[in-house]
Amino acid sequence: MAWEDDIQLSEGICGSSPYIAPEEFSQSSFDPRGVDIWSCGVIYMAMRTGRQLWKLADAKKDEFFQEYLVKRKDATGYEPIESLKRARCRNVIYSILDPKPERRINGKQILNSEWGREIKAYLNPLQA
Fold it and tell me: Where is the Protein kinase domain (predicted)?
């Protein structure tokens, strides 16, 4: 909750298959904040590419996710992310979709990134 200072770990698998973070499959408890960041990255990529990147973020069960894990480390990268025009954006998306939750970027880091600072938010929709 917003008024709490302590992290409340989550347990179990929750959510729709393409949006579930890898740690939900491999850890008995996990920090839900990183899970939400992961889901936002999957949603962003679905909006940008018009398709899901994978069905399930479990390399043992999904060949597309296995391909992502291999190609994200390759010099040429993972094509759907590499198709994003701006390097600043690609770097943040790779950090959002880092399969290791302890390395995954957090919300504050996203907003403070070069890419995040370029995002304009309007309080009044008439300003857009």
Answer: 1-123
